[in-house]
């Protein structure tokens, strides 16, 4: 489970085209998983899917687990949603506030170490540099999507 954000002018969640392309991009990884049954192959297929959607510049996904960006930064999605009645749209004023929160909470060595401590010993993210790059990419990706939506004065569509 997780939270998905869409900038509909770039990636409309009602238009299946980009999602079909993302599924097509996973075919090889899915076949590998079906042959092996290995969890790592399943995760690789899911990563390909989400990477294709993120590459549109109109998508962000935050998992609901301790390795999510928000828990590692000490932030809470519940606090983001608390003042909103409609949890399917993130209005521009709230995006401005969220962007400021992210600017105030950079990826520090402490954040990286918290992430490294969470993952299993055989997880590739046990490597601090790999974890740092992953978290930096996630942080930058969310900030970029927020900046793009703010510039377009367009609320983000959300499914949580």
Could you please describe the fold and organization of this structure?
The chain is 59% helix and 10% strand. The protein is an alpha+beta fold and 160 residues long. The chain has one domain. It has a 4-stranded antiparallel β-sheet with strand order 2-1-4-3. The protein is globular and about 45 Å long.
Write a concise keyword list for the protein shown above.
160 residues; alpha+beta; four-stranded antiparallel beta sheet; 8 helices; 59% helix; globular
Q: How are the elements arranged and paired?
A:
Blueprint: E1 2-6, H1 16-25, H2 27-36, H3 39-54, E2 59-63, H4 69-73, H5 77-81, E3 89-90, H6 92-104, H7 109-118, H8 128-152, E4 156-159
Antiparallel strand pairs: 1-2, 1-4, 3-4
Beta-sheet strand percentage?
A: 5-15%
* Low-confidence sequence ranges: none
Strand order of the largest sheet: 2-1-4-3
Oligomer: single chain
Q: How many helical stretches?
A: 8
Q: What pattern of helices and strands is seen along the backbone?
A: EHHHEHHEHHHE
Biggest sheet, in brief?
4 strands, antiparallel
Number of domains: 1
Distance between the termini: 8 Å
What structural class should be given to the helix and strand makeup? alpha+beta
Compute the gyration radius: what is it? 16 Å
Structure in a nutshell:
The chain is α+β, with helices and mostly antiparallel strands and 160 residues long. It has helices spanning 16-25, 27-36, 39-54, 69-73, 77-81, 92-104, 109-118, 128-152; strands spanning 2-6, 59-63, 89-90, 156-159.
């Amino acid at each position: 489970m997780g939270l998905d954000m869409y900038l509909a002018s770039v990636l409309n969640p009602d238009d299946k085209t980009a999602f079909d392309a993302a599924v097509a991009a996973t075919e090889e990884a899915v076949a590998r998983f079906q042959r092996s049954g290995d969890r790592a192959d399943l995760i690789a297929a899911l990563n390909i899917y989400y990477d294709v959607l993120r590459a549109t510049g109109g998508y962000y996904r935050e998992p609901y687990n301790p390795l999510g960006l928000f828990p590692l930064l000490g932030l809470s999605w519940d606090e983001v949603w608390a003042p909103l009645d409609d949890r399917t749209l993130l209005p521009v004023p709230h995006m401005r506030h969220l962007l400021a929160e992210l600017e105030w909470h950079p990826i520090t060595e402490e954040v990286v170490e918290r992430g490294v401590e969470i993952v299993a010993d055989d997880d590739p993210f046990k490597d601090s540099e790999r974890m740092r790059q992953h978290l930096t990419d996630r942080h930058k990706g969310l900030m970029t999507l927020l900046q793009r939506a703010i510039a377009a004065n367009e609320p983000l569509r959300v499914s949580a």
